[in-house]
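User: Sequence recovery, please. Input:
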């Protein structure tokens, strides 16, 4: 098991405790879906827009579920049993087993939407930082100048 001591980060940074906890959880918790199925890509189309594309061949819109809970995006799939009834497979190369993938989202990431096209599930994300959280310049006032102005 990998252990990383993040104590030095706590001493020199303010508000980084959430990120440090996420890093710690990444190395200490068991990895979800270690088999790597279904396969997915994460792309960045601009400074604030991202897309997760997941290969979900054989799954329909009703078989997939995309939810967000406490900054965790959860994509799950389960094929309905009615499609399997009365079918005898001679060879089954298209995986139809259920799955669940979890993605930890950074602060201010919002889901724009999800769509299914040609066996690929596309989940679009956008990073929207509130105005109050954006960097702003703080003016420095010279006290000696203030005294002479009075």
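Assistant: Recovered sequence (150 residues):
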């Amino acid at each position: 098991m990998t252990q990383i001591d993040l104590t030095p980060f706590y001493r020199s940074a303010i508000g980084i405790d959430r990120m440090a906890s996420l890093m710690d959880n990444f190395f200490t918790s068991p990895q979800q879906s270690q088999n790597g199925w279904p396969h997915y890509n994460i792309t960045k189309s601009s400074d604030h827009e991202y897309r997760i594309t997941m290969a979900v061949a054989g799954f329909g819109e009703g078989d997939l579920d995309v939810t967000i809970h406490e900054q965790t995006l959860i994509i799950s799939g389960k094929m309905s049993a009615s499609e399997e009834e009365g079918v005898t497979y001679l060879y089954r190369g298209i995986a139809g087993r259920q799955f669940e993938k979890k993605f930890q989202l950074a602060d201010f990431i919002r889901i724009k939407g999800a769509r299914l096209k040609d066996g690929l599930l596309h989940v679009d994300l956008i990073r929207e930082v509130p105005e109050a959280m954006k960097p702003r310049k703080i003016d420095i006032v010279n006290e000696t100048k203030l005294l002479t102005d009075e």
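The two ends are 66 Å apart (CA to CA).
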